[in-house]
Structures are given as C-alpha cells and as structure tokens.
Amino acid sequence: MRVVDGVGRAGLKVLQVAAEAVPLVKTGGLADVVGALPDALARTGVHSRLLLPGFPAVKAAFTGARLVATLPCPWTGEAPQLMAGRLKPFGDAPAYMVVAPDLYERPGGPYSDPSGAAWADNHRRFAPLAWAARALARGADRAWQPDVVHAHDWHAGLAPAALSHAGLTVASVMTIHNLAYQGLFPAQTFLELDLPAAAWDVNGVEFWGQVSFMKAGLHHAQAISTVSPTYAREILDPAMGCGLDGVLRAHPGGVAGILNGVDYRVWHPATDPLIPHRFDARQLEGKALCKAALQQAHGLVVRPDAMLMAVVSRLTSQKGLDLLLQVLPQALEHGAQMVVLGQGDAQLEAGFAAAAQRYPGALVLLRAHDEALAHQLFAAADVVLVPSRFEPCGLTQLYAMAYGALPLVHDVGGLADTVQDATLEALEEDEATGFAFHRFEPADLQAALRRAHLLWRRPAQWAQVQQRAMAQRFDWDRAAQGYVALYEQALSRLTAAPAPV
Ligand code: ADP
Ligand code: GLC
Fold it and tell me: In which residue ranges of the chain is CATH 3.40.50.2000 found?
C-alpha cells in the first residue's frame, strides 16, 4: 500500500505531460510553467519526468533515446513510438517523448499550420501523449513508473481518461492553464482515441456531441487545479466557465488555485544575458540605458522622461488589446510611447500596424515572437499593459515587476491576485505595485492610464511603487508545495474511491 501523507512525498514519482516546455517549445506561459516546475518539485523531494511530443526541437535536445513502447495507431500510418532518454537543456534529466514524424515534424507551430489555422488532425497529434502516459503507468519502462500523472491543458487531457479506463492505480491531476482552449473535435474522431466505447458519455469525453480533451481530463482526474486562486473561483461561474463550469462544480475535489511562480534564473535583470545593460532595484542606471537602447533601436524619440509602455503578448481576443486600441490617443498623451511585441489575430495586427503609421516615433509594432526582444521590452519599459478580458494567471505582469516596470492590468484572474493597484490608500501603506481597472470598458482603462501618467509625473512616488514591485517574489517553491499537496490529495482520493469511469 502506498504511503501518501507527508512521509510518502519524498520519492514520489510524477509524470508531467505537456505540449510545450521552455526552452524547447513555447507559444505562451504554459511553456514557462512546465519548464520551471520539475526543478521546483525536485527541491521538495518529488521526482518528475517530462513527457513531450517529439517536435524537432525536442528531438534535437534528446539524448540516449531508447524505445519503451510502440503506441496504438488507429489510423493508417506509422505508429507513434514512446522513447525514454535525457533532455540536455534540463541538466540531462531523464524524460520521455513520443516520436511520430508524420504528426510532429511539420512547418508551422505546435498547434497550427503556417497560416495560423489549427491542424485538422490535432486529435491524432495529442492522443498519443495519453497512450504514452498509460503505457508508463502500466510499467512499460521497467526503470521508472509514475505514481501520479500530471496533465497540463487539453493537449494532455486524454491522459486521465486513458488511465481511469485502464483501471490503473496511478492517480491523475489535471491543471487548467486556459479553459478557453478545450481540444474539441468532431464525434467521429472518438474512434481514433483508443478508448473503450463507454468513454463516449456525457460523464466522459463527450461534450455537446463533440469530443472534448479538456472535459476528459477534468472528469477523470482525481484532482484539478488552475493557475491562480481568483481564476479557480471565476471558472465555477457560468459566465466564465466556458461551458465546463458544471463539470468543475461537480468534481468532488473542487478546483485548487495554485499561483504560478517566476523562474528568477531566467527572469532577473541582474543576470539576464538577453538585455543590453543589467540592473537591480538598488542600481537602476542599467534600466535607463536599456530604455534608451530600445527607443533608439526602434525609432522612438530617445527621451528618458517619456513614459514607455510595453505590450508583450499573443494578439488574441483574450488579451483585451482591442480595448487598448480604443484608447490610444489618451494612452499616448504627454509624449508617452508604446511598443507592442506580438503576433496573432489579423485584425489586431492590422489595428496596431495602422496605429504605428498614425503615431510615428511614439508607437511601434514588432510583429514577432521573439524571446530576446521580450526580455528587452520588460527591461526597458516603465509600464507593461495587460488589459486581458480574462487571465488564468498571466506571467508578463510578474516579469514586468521583476524588471521594475509597473503593470497596468484588468483585475481579473491571476492579474487580480498579483497586482496591487496604486490607490491613495495603497500608496500611503506602501503596498502599491501597479495599476488596475475593474470594468472592461474604455473609460475604466482610460482612467487607469491617466493615473499612470499622473504618477509618472511624481518621480519620488513612482520610485516607491517601483521598489515595492521589484521586491515582490512569486517563488516556484511555494507553488511546488501546492502541487505536492495536490498529488497527495489525488493519491488518497484514488485509494479511497477508484476513479469514475
Ligand atoms: P499566455 O500564456 O496566455 O500567452 P502568459 O502571460 O502566461 O500568457 O505568458 C506569456 C509568455 O509568452 C511570457 O513568457 C511572455 O514573455 C511570452 N510572450 C508573449 N508574447 C510574446 C512575443 N511576441 N514574443 C516573445 N515572447 C512572448
Ligand atoms: C495560459 C494562460 C496564462 C497562464 C499560462 C501559464 O496560457 O493564458 O494566464 O499564465 O497559461 O499557466
């Protein structure tokens, strides 16, 4: 019998199943989290191993690959293979990948083709992660067998279902990084998922006549978490539950809200190799130099007294940047400047491109996904704008604070949990770390921008808020403790009552 309480945590073995991990594959914050979590868990005595799709960058970083299992192939083609080996960028840590050249070695992104459209066979591309997790849970690798399978987002959502239908005594945990992406596929794809017919059920993978990978994970996992306490509450409500609030409310374990951390080994202005001048809270000259360098490089007027705002974001409706487009004249008052780094939605790209023409020397659009530029923007900026409609956690506001830029955010989800608005009271108590607006309306965003402009003209108060922001610590160690507790909870729920099938 497994020991699960406290004493059992040292040596607990957890398989982390995900589609992205820094520094190999990244489209967003999921990759930052999956890249940082294994190390933080290791410091608590939990051994975790990553299981990733064999994208070219993953294959290139994988050494000593050995075949563990040939996975099902319910379609005509080459069967995906589960390989064990080591991942170079993770200090040669043991890891797993699914090798399937037909599925993963294509031009474009991890989820979409070069035009940005989702790959039509995404159910085939991500189901093998679940089969690989099931094979490992069954003991396919004699060297290592997980106690817990931790599935991240819909890409891994089929894993808890596959485990529970195989009747295995390995617990599963499902973490929602973004409930808006659910992995929905036409009903007939169910036949290619290698699950028993019983899985096609409203209490299973079926969601309004479609297959839902996310629902499969939520229904079958012994424990569910998401990436901030506020988002954990918000998604229980039909208004923000993306149709899955009922499934979440019905889960016996509830939804834990474990706030993401920052990997300060990667995101620290005193050691960051990607920024031109290093600095810290006591020595801010380097920040001024980073700002001047950025202004110079991108054709902005080089003025230290111009408030420089930055956006580092996927350009999607989630991020609320359409609201920002509506208030640009106010945002750019008093000689303020803005740099937008992002790509995605054609309409948003066009909106910012047009604005860059309208405000030459004041607004720049960098239409790219560029890691080094992202670091340089945080280092240079005075304000980082995150007006998201919803935000499960959000990492850019945390990076902003670490680099002495004040975040200006819509107070939802993780943004509400991490940014303290510079109200008069918060300033008086020396608690302010940024700016927040409540209603998702142009007038509210405008009012927050106005407060930012006003504070900018009071350098001593600005410096106080900046110091408070830079002193914030969002440590992975705290988050790792939360996950350990969740793993234990999942294991005890599994032993108390087998997973619902
Ligand atoms: P999400 O995961 O919803 O995109 P997060 O704030 O959690 O939002 O994480 C975004 C991550 O992606 C951060 O690491 C951020 O720096 C990075 N990022 C977003 N857009 C870009 C971009 N255009 N170029 C480089 N990095 C980007
Ligand atoms: C998702 C969310 C973001 C979160 C990230 C990492 O992409 O949109 O808010 O920070 O996952 O958990």
Answer: 13-261+476-496, 285-470
106: exposed, middle or buried (Cβ count in 10 Å: 0-12, 13-18, 19+)? middle
Taking the centre of ligand 2 as the mean of its atom positions, its distance from the CA of residue 293, in whole angstroms, is 30
CA-nearest residue for atom 10, ligand 2, is 394
pLDDT value at 5 more than 50: no
Element housing 385 (H / E): strand 383-386
DSSP 108: S
* 79 CA distance to ligand 2 middle (Å): 32
CATH fold of the domain at 13-261+476-496: Rossmann fold (3.40.50)
Ligand 2 centroid–CA 425 distance in Å is 30
Ligand 2 pocket check for 28: Cβ under 6 Å: yes
Tens-digit pLDDT profile for residues 83-101: 999 999 999 999 999 999 9
CATH fold group of domain 285-470: Rossmann fold (3.40.50)
Instruction: State how far the Cα of 174 lies from the Cα of 182, in Å rounded to an integer.
Output: 13
Q: Inter-axis angle of helices 158-165 and 122-137, to 10 degrees?
A: 40
